[in-house]
Amino acid sequence: MNYKIRRPNDDESSPNYPNNTQESWERNTLRDVLLEAYHEQKRARLWRNIWRGVGVLMFVSIMASAMKGSPENRQHQIATHKEHTAVINLTGVIGGNEDVNHVEILRDGLEEAFKNKHAKAIIIHANSPGGSPVVSNVAFQEVMRLKNMEKTKPVYVVIGDMCASGCYYIASAADKIYADPSSLVGSIGVIGSSFDATGLMDKLGVKRRQRIAGNNKGMGDPFSPETPEQVAIWQQMLNQIHAEFIKAVKLGRGNKLKEQQNPDLFSGRVYTGLESKNVGLIDEFGNVYSVARDVVKAPKLVDYTPEQNDLASLISRGLGAKMNTKLESWLNSVW
Predict the structure, then answer these.
(1) Would you identify the CATH topology of the domain 75-191+228-304?
(2) How confident is the model over 236-261, as pLDDT tens digits?
(3) Active site residues
């Protein structure tokens, strides 16, 4: 559709009258551009409103889930009002994942279980190769603190496939330790390792240029030779950490350990469940089911392991710093 504004004195036959064809093309082009811009703006507004609506629905759904709980959470709530055995899972490399805080898992799970009068005992179900000595020591201290403070119900560790090194560090805080005869237990030692690539560099004709302030600042660099003094420093550090490990195990296990009959008890070796009972690293054989049924006399198992990565759990903990960060990022992407 073409639009023209004509004045009474305009004469289309006049040589001064604009070219109708060119004028019409320019007008149509301008109209098409404006219409397309209008439609594009309208579409953008529509999708923005749609996404806002979706965002609000998602937020409301998450809030409702956090407040009311999932079917599993509702079952958990029902189960906790009956006599049961509380279970807290200790899995993975201790301190090996920044998204999983093993200290918080144990502390929060233990606190919740101790508060529930229907939980007759607490089982820490351990299946870990170990990990950070610092995280292990903090977890050990927290288990000991809560156990000694509450004194209302026993804390047992039941070992699955493995509870070695840092995992056993934590396990030694329990009142009793149970394992399968084929479980791997112990490894009470400390390891620190690296590579010496100086021989390879010599063969390749490559020399290391390293500038340091302090004779031992580059200690541990695989491309620099290690001095006898640095070897002694490394060994001293490992010995000190090992001594702390041994002290914690002795504090937790006490006279159950048969150290005199087994001089290699703290050598870092791993024992089977059969061997570990003979040397005093565990008390009896058992699994979560047999311990709950035969020892605690409360066969119903209820998982008290706190969830650490789901959004609903973060909301239910009071919109902490981590929740605020996730929520801000999500809202920015929606809006």
Answers:
(1) 2-enoyl-CoA Hydratase; Chain A, domain 1 (3.90.226)
(2) 999 999 999 999 999 999 999 999 99
(3) 165, 217
